[in-house]
Amino acid sequence: MTAAALLLTACGDSASPSSAPGTPAPTKTCKHHDEQRQPFFGDLHVHTRYSLDANTQGTIVGPHDAYRFARGEPLGIQPYDENGNALRTTQLARPLDFAAVTDHAELFGEVEICTNPEYVEYYLAECTLYRAAPEQSFIIFNLVAVGLPELPQFPVPPGVPVVSDLPVIGANGKIPRLPYCGVDGQRCLEAAKTPWTDIQQAAEAYYDRSDDCRFSTFVGYEWTGAPLSNNLHRNVIFESEVVPGLPPAYQEFPREELLWQALDAQCGTVAGCDYLTIPHNSNLSAGMMFETQDRFGNDYTAEFAQRRQDAEPLAEIYQHKGQSECLGTSGVGAQDELCGFELLPYNNLTGERFGGLNTGPPMEQDFLRQALKAGLQQEQQLGVNPFKYGFIGSSDTHMGTPGNVIEDRFTGHAGAGLNPSNYSGGLTDVIEASPGGLAVLWAEQNTRESLFSAMRRREAYGTSGTRPIVRFFGGWDYPSDLCGRGDFVPVGYAQGVPMGGDLPAAHSDAPRFAVSALRDPGFALEPTQPLQRIQIIKGWVADGQTHEQVYDVAGDPNNGASVDLDTCESTGSGFASLCTVWTDPAFDPSQPAFYYARVVENPSCRWSTRQCLAAGVDCSNPDAVPEGYADCCNADTPKTIQERAWTSPIWYRPTQSAMQ
Asked: Using alpha carbons only, what angle is made at residue 215 by residues 210 and 218, rounded to the nearest 5 degrees?
């Protein structure tokens, strides 16, 4: 099958609407509408000057600037000269299809007051410190607002006082805001309306409501719970412009179930208001993101598990702070060498900030593959799977640069330790950081309603930054020659389910999965590589114990592709397209399971290797290594990467008869 033919297959055949999956009619029809759905590439994790951590690192880019950048316009970024002129400029080679600015809501008002001299409190001690010592203020403000509260996420003996019983948590269960916020934090809550209004206005201004439907925006924000810097963050995405008057923040709602309750109360009962939450980079949650007990040691209930599944259908598998797919230190996962991709060496948001005193090594339970398996166990116990996550990628940029995720032009994201306001050369971010990835949504058209529906049903996948086109279907009777036919997509829908779905009731011996991948078609604009292989990862539960297996199903892992580290030139063969129909060879109808596809490209140079090579770094002569490039000689950092995509899983749930 030719690459051109597969592209047409992967993107669907709009001439066959009768075979399309049934979905509610959209509010309008775009010029580029396809009932068989199309892939849209975007970024749902973007910070601008309204986020405390971005603001204290010199970001002056606002939501309007971020959306213009996402649409393809150049953007000046820090550092700035004494006249406020940007000393660096960046631009996407290819615009995004959609984006959401998701600034940290917790300190909206505090930042607004300390940076706007129209407020009387601007001149108080806290704000004077904020402007004079922004890096120190970042630590102080964050610890008070989201880092110290709710520390004990574990059982404690009866009668023993814990941090959340002390004055750091108010008597009403809320986290007191900084003193200059006034009684009940009202000054800061009122001031928070200014950035929140601007975020909404920017989303409205850059949402293409014409029939061209070139670019979609979502109103969103980040709920920033991080007890002891253990990441519990969620990005909150609203379907439409109808949103709460203020975003529910961690100070007032310091647990995820309180967040969902607040969103239900403020949004769920209002016509036109809908939301979902997306946990991000669980790899830095120090064992907390996917716990199956609350902080008092109470087991999940079926009601809580269902609430979690309903509220957050997606999770972020890759971003600036590394991958959250798999750690690969135990079981079959220990043989999965691709789990070593972009692994951070620590387990919470503190990172190396205090010499590693507040962190430890990565933990297996923080990764999504482990969470998916735990979800199967929970479903056996409760009847509901709380960790039924589809996958997306995003950037987590703190410089207002959504989609700036290609290795050869990485200007940093300022979200993992390096302060770009002080940048004077050298590597553009800390060595362990990555440029992040993209979210891909299969939708009929590029509108909020259509894209949001794709998120809800988990017909989504994440990439590490490139844009391969991937489809993944599961069913029972797919013909073995499906890849060579012209009806791959209609048959995929008609005889099964797409990524993110549940397999229909069994009516053959074993499920079959149809997966196709097309090389990123933008290789003429950006240095993307041919495909190397497609894998299917299976996880299942047998006799109460979890298992996993990785299958190579298409392509060639031993194709000889390599990289010349002296030039970053790639060599070796690869594939413009890959497609297969695969049957699970070890299927047991009594065992619940999930399956997802991982599409892997040929190796290429990592961003840091490219920058070290451009600077002429010679590690054989340490005294000659330029300032800012010492980590070029860090032997623990891989020189190459293999870009990839991860599809949302497809789940198999045994019927009662199959379990007997």
From this structure: 105
